[in-house]
Amino acid sequence: QKEVEQDPGPLSVPEGAIVSLNCTYSNSAFQYFMWYRQYSRKGPELLMYTYSSGNKEDGRFTAQVDKSSKYISLFIRDSQPSDSATYLCAMSVGGGSNYKLTFGKGTLLTVNP
Amino acid sequence: GAVVSQHPSRVICKSGTSVKIECRSLDFQATTMFWYRQFPKKSLMLMATSNEGSKATYEQGVEKDKFLINHASLTLSTLTVTSAHPEDSSFYICSASSGGSETQYFGPGTRLLVL
């Protein structure tokens, strides 16, 4: 079993839809969770960073962590064509930027106008 | 702030040659830099972690004699793919951290094609 599992999609939704992206993990030592957005042929860009179970909201994005189920989600409200990208979950055992990240495979999202 | 650049963005080389990729933190001092490799439709795989002035720590299965990493200053790390072969063709991405930041900042990536 891989440490981090993420459905690669692809996921196609109409503009304005609510998007739900998910990852599961097996390593209970993971305590810090991130979501990155990666446009084609570009480096990943940090969207959300959380370290506690529960919800964290930032604009149209909500990150949800359930440590008891080892399950994290990213919700995108009022999705826009510019949200079309690959979304990667990532996690680490420690906080701070010096800890190595373990990534999911990424989910390719297309938002159709 | 927190901008990381990579050069070149794309490189094509012949099999057997060596290729050097640069990663620079433009507006902060990067105490730690990470090198990743990404295959199409695959996740980012960490290759190595380098701290300024120290030898890089390589992940299991990554050949340190093939992928030479140098982190000689707080703003520059280099990855040299030695004697490149077609199976080394991939997207190489670096990230940098200042230690005090919450997370790593990624460069735009370098696409390597070995013919």
Q: Could you characterize the architecture of this molecule?
A:
The complex is a heterodimer of chains A (113) and B (115). By secondary structure, chain A is an all-beta fold. Chain A has no helices and 11 strands. Chain A has strands at residues 4-6, 11-14, 19-25, 32-38, 45-50, 54-58, 61-66, 71-76, 85-92, 102-103, 107-112. In chain A, strands 2, 4, 5, 9, 10 and 11 form a 6-stranded mixed β-sheet that branches. Chain A is globular. Chain A starts with a strand and ends with a strand. The model of chain A has no long low-confidence stretch (mean pLDDT 91). With 115 residues, chain B is mostly beta strands. Chain B has no helices and 11 strands. In chain B, the strands form 2 sheets. In chain B, strands 2, 4, 5, 6, 9, 10 and 11 form a 7-stranded mixed β-sheet that branches. In chain B, strands 1-3-8-7 form a 4-stranded antiparallel β-sheet, with no helix packed on it. The radius of gyration of chain B is 13 Å and the shape is globular. The chains are: A mainly beta (113), B mainly beta (115). At the A-B interface, strand 5 and strand 10 of A face strand 5, strand 9 and strand 10 of B.
